[in-house]
Amino acid sequence: DGGITQSPKYLFRKEGQNVTLSCEQNLNHDAMYWYRQDPGQGLRLIYYSQIVNDFQKGDIAEGYSVSREKKESFPLTVTSAQKNPTAFYLCASSINEAQPQHFGDGTRLSIL
Amino acid sequence: QKEVEQNSGPLSVPEGAIASLNCTYSDRVSQSFFWYRQYSGKSPELIMSIYSNGDKEDGRFTAQLNKASQYVSLLIRDSQPSDSATYLCAVSLLNAGNNRKLIWGLGTSLAVNP
Hints:
The complex is a heterodimer. By secondary structure, chain A is mainly β. Chain A is built from no helices and 11 strands. Helix content of chain A is 0%, strand content 50%. In chain A, the strands form 2 sheets. In chain A, strands 2, 4, 5, 6, 9, 10 and 11 form a 7-stranded mixed sheet that branches. In chain A, a hairpin with a 5-residue loop joins strand 4 and strand 5 (43-51). Chain A is globular, with a radius of gyration of 13 Å. By secondary structure, chain B is mainly β. Chain B contains no helices and 11 strands.
């Protein structure tokens, strides 16, 4: 089945640690996105990529990094510089910016 | 003014009634409009896309778009308790760099009471 796979489902980060969230899609979509959602709040864009080997900062990129070495993969690293990382992280993909985005099941990140 | 606005709710309707969810947006040249449903603790799922003025029906769902008035609405007929969720409106807008970007509303919480 075509879709977007995020892993792990739950992740715990220790103080000063970098952690990487995985996102893989087999929809052959060019565009991929990372969002953060806090309780009772909307989706906030962290990074997006419209094509392989290129990505742009979203609204809240500080403390995060990404790479897009393959069309299918768009991993997100939450660095130790992100002081408030506890949130629900959602990866999405779309054919292009005018088409709907499709989401993975999300990763819940908490601080130990 | 926010670029995409929705009433946060909660909107409460009895089972079997019509639920009406509204969304207004700020950009006159928007062309793509989407409604998503998000259950508590889950990721958003696409339920409707609409690109031109008028109504689009899919089962119990109808999306209505009025570009002149800059609003898009979602009607849910014969509401069921399983429709209880947060409904997110998303609009493809031009940003300052003249690039298209999907802007999300904060969502409207719907509760369907048995």
